[in-house]
Automatic annotation (TrEMBL), chain A:
Pfam families: BPD_transp_2. It is a multi-pass membrane protein. The keyword Nucleotide-binding does not apply. The keyword Transcription regulation does not apply. One of its GO terms (cellular component) is plasma membrane. This is Ribose ABC transporter permease protein. GO terms for molecular function: transmembrane transporter activity. Keywords: Cell membrane, Membrane, Transmembrane, Transmembrane helix.
Automatic annotation (TrEMBL), chain B:
It comes from Roseisalinus antarcticus. GO terms for cellular component: plasma membrane. The lineage of its organism: Bacteria, Pseudomonadati, Pseudomonadota, Alphaproteobacteria, Rhodobacterales. This is Membrane lipoprotein TmpC. Transmembrane segments: none annotated. Its main location: membrane. Pfam families: Bmp (PF02608). Keywords: Cell membrane, Lipoprotein, Membrane, Signal. InterPro entries: BMP_lipoprotein, Peripla_BP_I, PnrA-like. Gene3D superfamilies: 3.40.50.2300. Belongs to the BMP lipoprotein family.
Length: 379, 331
């Protein structure tokens, strides 16, 4: 555990991974005959250079925070929930059901109801795979990914059939005006900041940040969180300590599914203001990368979600103003996922050797070292 | 006047002059991507034809997500592009919002309808074109069973299938029309393997002509039909050349013309609803050297007669999307 200082683990490794991914992306851009420096400039100015760019970056980041948290919570119980996509789709259905059929007087109440409904639908979608895992041992990876397809089919049935608005498009009617969430333009307008009106980032960003704090408190400051982590580290030990595996699997997956479902208040209620087909658009899968990169810690998830928001918005600007095909933008995004998620050990192992070598030369004083190990063990 | 105001004034003036100098048209492709051998590619062909003929240049973008629709519209409008052409019905909702914010920019939406003073809505009467190829299918069929393979199960695709079934039943009241949809997610637009499986299944049920209205999935349908020695019908673009002598015809949907016309008219493009049917040459069936041997003079005469009747308004083909039902087939 003490091969490397903690700062190197949480900051240095992701940073080096990012730089490697950026260098490789630059080569790819060079290879297709465009200037990588221009491209990076465009990505940064497009995603972070204006309130407009920030508005989109934060909008995407909000989606990724919810799905990233969802994957993290399940991951603490060593459940690999890759059904975030389907759970987010069901969350969208939950939002639509509440907003289309019930007239709400004000967005605040509508947001509460929609959040509750989205979480309930998302959790319900995670419940069956969780039950099958807990009682029957059906592998959660297989069942959750299968449920993504069932969710897509269910949404399609609802949007082509009973919930379809009149007209061409397979989508629900637009939600009533009263339920539309205030965007950052409206919110910052109150305190006199002129935020771009076009960008879709909205009040659910703050719900996502609150969810980050809540997940942190749950995992590290409650008994349930302790049980989830204990179960994740060792099932036999947890069982020996009187923790019910069935309960932990169910609870962790329900919370996970609920968080993924909550994403719908951002993309369905906040942005589209109606339910369209394939509303989640892969954010459930990006959540896996976000959770891996964020080391399943809410703060890490928050930062990783911002990074992926930047990549999404920056990528959109590249597609708009440079002659770069969208497949190549996916390649660039994939390189970042590959380096930060999958190739973690490639950076970690040499880095650990370097730190070990450095430590041998100058042995650390015994006092603080003992203290830090005991602090880490307590975590 | 504060420095900030001066700065804003200067940027505004700059933006205005840039817009005036730049007035290039712009084209936004739908999620299927530019090279889908079908709808989007047809739009791209139209834009390229315009660029080659006039030497002009245009901006274009392929979208990655739904949230980018409004974004792309606003960015192009603020950049001074005019007109801004978008391919796909999914733009209708974002465009309704955006069009009002840029009254001096002209927008052209293909396959969707938006009522705004600065929007041209181009819709195609796919049911009429499908009716014509449905007639050809029933006339060419020896088994009396013809197949339809749709892409994603949405009303627009059912509109194709409904027109096709009506055409088949019109020439052969005993004809059996088998309809299958490839899937329920957007992946259904690009799944040639599944298209191939469905074709084999329809052949098993006796079909000897299949019509694919399924984007990239259709490539698999046409391939399997050629391999199994039955006839197939292409869609959107003329796909007769893909398997010479094996593709009966293609239902043409001239998206390229819609884009070309809009680009040619430039900022003066006429707004309002523009229905491109058989009468205006917006839809039809393809006849070229690759399928000349498959279409007998009798078949051609029958179809041309029907086309003339549709154009004259004497023959009404039922539009599935008008009431979400079809007299000739159940989906």
């Amino acid at each position: 555990m003490d091969r490397m200082p903690r700062w190197a683990d949480v900051i240095l490794i992701p940073l080096i991974s990012l730089i490697l991914a950026a260098l490789l992306s630059a080569l790819v851009i060079l290879f297709i005959g465009e200037s990588p420096i221009e491209a990076i400039k465009l990505m940064i100015s497009g995603a972070l250079g204006s309130t407009y760019g920030w508005g989109y970056t934060l909008y995407y980041a909000t989606n990724f925070m919810f799905t990233g948290l969802a994957v993290s919570v399940a991951f603490h119980a060593r459940m690999f929930n890759i059904g975030g996509e389907g759970q987010a789709l069901l969350g969208g259905l939950g939002v639509a059901v509440v907003l289309v059929y019930i007239p709400w007087p004000h967005w605040t109440i509508a947001l509460l109801a929609a959040t509750a409904s989205a979480a309930a639908f998302g959790a319900a979608w995670a419940a069956l795979p969780a039950y099958l895992q807990a009682r029957r041992g059906s592998h959660i990876v297989i069942t959750t990914i299968m449920f993504n397809f069932i969710a897509a089919a269910l949404l399609n049935w609802a949007l082509v059939g009973p919930m379809k608005a009149p007209g061409q498009e397979p989508a629900t009617v637009s939600f009533p005006e009263a339920t539309n969430l205030p965007t950052l333009h409206d919110i910052f307008g109150i305190i006199g900041i002129d935020w771009s009106r076009a960008a879709p980032a909205n009040v659910s960003l703050f719900v996502a940040i609150a969810a980050c704090v809540a997940v942190w408190a749950l995992i590290w400051r409650t008994r349930l969180g302790y049980e989830i982590r204990a179960f994740g580290y060792s099932e036999p030990a947890a069982r020996y300590a009187g923790i019910s595996p069935f309960k932990i699997i169910m609870v962790a997956m329900l919370i996970s599914g609920g968080l993924a479902g909550c994403m719908a208040i951002n993309n369905v209620q906040g942005e589209a203001e109606r339910l369209v087909l394939n509303a989640a658009e892969g954010a459930g899968f990006i959540g896996i990368a976000v959770a891996l990169m964020g080391r399943s810690h809410p703060l890490g998830v928050f930062l990783a979600a911002l990074l992926f928001g930047f990549l999404y918005q920056g990528g959109a600007e590249l597609a708009l103003w440079m002659n770069i095909q969208r497949e190549l933008i996916v390649v660039i995004q994939a390189l970042v996922i590959l380096f930060t998620g999958a190739l973690d050990n490639m950076i970690r192992m040499p880095l650990e050797k370097i730190f070990l070598a450095a430590r041998r030369k100058s042995p650390p004083p015994p006092g603080p070292d003992r203290k830090s190990t005991s602090a880490e063990a307590a975590e | 006047m504060t420095i900030m105001q001066k700065l804003f004034g200067a940027t505004a003036a700059l933006a205005l002059t840039a817009g005036a100098a730049l007035a290039d048209p712009a084209l936004i492709f739908d999620l299927g991507g530019k090279f889908d051998k079908s709808f989007n590619e047809s739009a791209f062909t139209g834009a390229q034809r315009w660029a080659e003929e006039t030497g002009g240049s245009y901006n274009e973008v392929e979208l990655q997500s739904d949230a980018q629709r409004e974004q792309a519209l606003r960015r192009f409008a603020e950049n001074g592009n005019n007109p801004i052409v978008m391919a796909g019905f999914s733009f209708a909702t974002p465009l309704t919002e955006v069009a009002a914010d840029y009254p001096d920019t002209k927008f052209v939406i293909i396959d969707g309808v938006v009522e705004a003073p600065n929007v041209r809505s181009v819709i195609f009467s796919e049911h009429e074109g499908s009716y014509l190829v449905g007639m050809l299918a029933a006339l060419a069929s020896e088994t009396g069973t013809v197949g339809f393979i749709g892409g994603m199960d949405i009303p627009l695709i059912r509109k194709f299938g409904c027109g096709y079934a009506q055409g088949a039943v019109a020439v052969n009241p005993d004809a059996t029309v088998i309809a299958n949809m490839t899937g329920t997610t957007p992946a259904a637009w690009n799944d040639p393997v599944r298209g191939s499986e469905l074709t084999l299944a329809q052949i098993g049920q006796g079909a000897d002509v299949v019509y694919a209205a399924a984007g990239g999935t259709g490539v698999g349908v046409l391939q399997t039909a050629a391999d199994e020695d039955i006839l197939s019908i292409g869609v959107d673009a003329n796909q007769n050349y893909l398997h010479p002598g094996e593709v009966l015809t293609s239902m043409l949907k001239r998206v390229d013309n819609a884009v070309y016309d809009a680009f040619t008219d430039g900022a003066d493009v006429e707004t309002g609803l523009n229905v491109m049917g058989v009468a205006s040459g917006g839809v039809g069936y393809a006849l070229d050297e690759y399928n000349a041997d498959l279409i007998t003079p009798e078949m051609q005469a029958a179809v041309d007669e029907a086309a003339a009747a549709i154009a004259a308004g004497d023959l009404m083909v039922h539009d599935y999307t008008s009431d979400e039902s079809c007299p000739a087939i159940n989906f």
